[in-house]
Amino acid sequence: MTTIETPAPQPSGALSSSSRLLTLASRYGTFVAFLALILFNVVVTPNFLSLQTLNVNLTQVATIVIVATGMTLVIATGGIDLSVGSLMAIAGALAPMIFMGQFWQVDSMGIAVALAFLLPVVVAGLFGLFNGFLVTRFSIQPIIATLVLFIAGRGIAQVMTNGNLQVFKNEGFQFIALGRIAGIPAQVVLMIAVAAAAWAMIRYTVIGRQIIAVGGNEKAARLAGVPVKRVKLFVYMVSGALAGIAGLIVVARNSASDANLVGLGMELDAIAAVAVGGTLLTGGRANIVGTVLGALVIQLVRYTLLANGVPDAAALIVKAGLIVTAVFIQQRAGRH
Amino acid sequence: MQTILRLFLVKNAGDLARLGVILALAGLILFGALRYDNFLSPYNILSFLRYNSMFALIALGMAFVIITGGIDLSVGGTAAMASVVAALLSPYHWAAGLIGGMAAGFAVGGLNGFIITKMRIQPFIATLATMLAAYGTGLLLADNQSVSVSYDTGFTVIGQDDFLGFPIPAWIALGAYILGWLVLEKLPIGRHILAIGDGEATAGLMGLKVERALAGVYLASGTLAGLAGVILASQFGAGQPTEGVGWELFAIASVVVGGTLLSGGSGSVGATLAGALLLAMVFNILNFENGLGWISLSAYWQSVIRGAFLLVVVVLQAKLMARHRST
User: Fold this and answer.
1) E strands within A125-240?
2) pLDDT tens profile A286-301
3) What is the distance between the alpha carbons of residues B273 and B250, in angstroms, rounded to a whole number?
4) Structure ipTM over 0.90, yes or no
5) B181 by DSSP, 3-state: which?
6) Whole-model pTM?
7) CB A151 to CB B310 under 8 A?
C-alpha cells in the first residue's frame, strides 16, 4: 500500500481546529446547552412536557430576563449595574403604598393602580439616572458607583416600609403577574416585549449602535461624535426602570412586598445570564437573544436539579461552574 | 495650603484621601467622647473591637486584592462556609476548628487565584462564581441549618475571651494588620503587588512574577475571610451558612473610605484599618444617639447611612483625582 503524503495547508498550526471548536461553542454553546437540557429533561424528569412546567419556568425567568436585558445594555457600554436588586425592592415597596393610600387618599382605584405602575418605575429610572450621573460626571467606576445604591437602596426600601411585610390583594395591580394575555401569563408577555424592544433598539436604532460604539472604544466613539455621556446616562436609566418593572412583578406575584427579600441577589442572576448568553463583560457587544437564552439555561439547570431531588445548595455550585465555563469559552473564542 | 499639606507628608491625591480618613476618625472619636458618657468606657471599646475585628480582617484582604486592581466578591460566602467548617470540626479540638476554617478560606482563595490567573477570567466574574459555590458548599455541609459549636473544646474562647485585657479577635486582627503592613511596605513582594496594580503588562515585562503575586493576594484574602468565619462561629456559638451577605461590600467600602484607589496601584494597610474603624464608628455613634433618645433610627437606616457615606467618599476621591490629574 502506498500512501501519498499530502501536507494539508495548516495556516495557523494545529491550534486552528480547537480554536474553531471554541468559536463554535461560544456562538452556539448556549443554544446547544439549552436544547440538551430540554432533551435531558424530556427523558429523565417526570411530567416535564406539561403546560404547568412551562408556566413555572417562564414565570420564574421573566423577572430575570427583564432585569438582564437592562444589564446587557449597561454591560455593552463597558459598565455594570449592581443596584438592580435594591431598585427592585424600592419599586416593590412603593407600589402597594400608592394603591393602599399611604401617601394620599385614593379616590379612584383605577388611577391609583395606574400610578402604582407608573411612579415606582419612574423612581427606579431616576435612581438609575443617578447611577449614570456618578459614572459620567465624576468618572467613578460603574461597580463602585452602583455599589452606593446597592447598599443604600435596600435600606431606603426598608426605611420606607419600616421593614414590615406589606400584604395586599388588588386584582388590577396584580394583573401584571397573575393575569393572562391571550392565555399567556402577562409577565411572560412583558418579558418578550422588553427583550424584543431592546433587540430592535440595538439592531435598528442610532442609540443602539452608539451603545455598542461606547463599549467598543470609548475614546474613538467620542472622537466620532457619539454623545458618550448621554448614552451612558440612558443605559443606566433603562436598567433602573426595568429593575423597577421587575420589582412590581415580584410583589404582585407574591401578593406581598418584603423590602428585605425583593430582588435579593438579582444583580448576580442578571450578570450571570448576560455572561452565559455571550455578551462580553468588557463591553462592545450586546446579545439580547443570548441573554434570554442564558437566563433560560440557568433557570432550566436549576429546575432540572430541583425536579430530580438535588438540593438547592448544590444548584448554586452548578450555577457557579456554569458561569465560569461560559465566560472561559467566550474569552478563548474571542481572542482568536 | 501646599505647605500645610507637605507638613503631613502629603504627596498625592491618595495621600490626601488617607489623611482625610484619619482626621475624620479622630474627629468622630472626639465627638463621641465629648457627647456620650460611656463612649470611652472599656465595655464599649472592647465590644466594639470584638465585633468589628471580623470585618477588619476581610477589609485587609480586600485591600490587597484591590491594590492589584482586582476585586474579591467571594469573601462573605467564604466566611459563611468557613464558619460551618469550623463549627463542624470544633468537637475534635479547638485548633481543628481554627485550622479547618482557615483551610476552607485558603481553598476558595486558591480556586479564585486559579480561575483568575490560569483561566484568565476577570476577578469580578471569577469571585462572583466562587461566592455562589462557597455559599452552596456551606449550605450543603450544614444541611441548610446553623451548626452549633462544641463548647467543651474551648473553641468559643477564640471569639469570646480576652487576652491581656483585649478581645482575642482584636489581637488576631492587629497581628494580621502588622503582617499586612510588613508585606506591603517592607517586603519586595509588596512593591510587586503595587506595580501589578499600576500596570499588569508592564510589571510582567519587568520580570515580576505577576501570576504568583496575584494568586498570593487571592489566597490571602480567602484565608483572612476564612479566619473571619472562624471568629464568627466562635463568637456566635454556631456555624452560619447564610451569614456574610453583603460583607464583601462592607469590605470594599472600608477599603475605598481608606483612600485606596479602586483602579489599583496605590493603597495603604493603615488607612484601610482606619476606613474599617470609621465605618464601624458611625454605627457605634448612631447606637449612642438612639440610646440618648434624641433620635430613633431603626437598624434599617444603617445601610442608608453606609451608602451615603460611601457616596461622599467616592465623590471626594473622584474630585481629588480629577484635580490631581489636571495639575
Assistant:
1) 166-167, 180-181, 184-185
2) 889 999 999 999 889 8
3) 13
4) no
5) helix
6) 0.85
7) yes
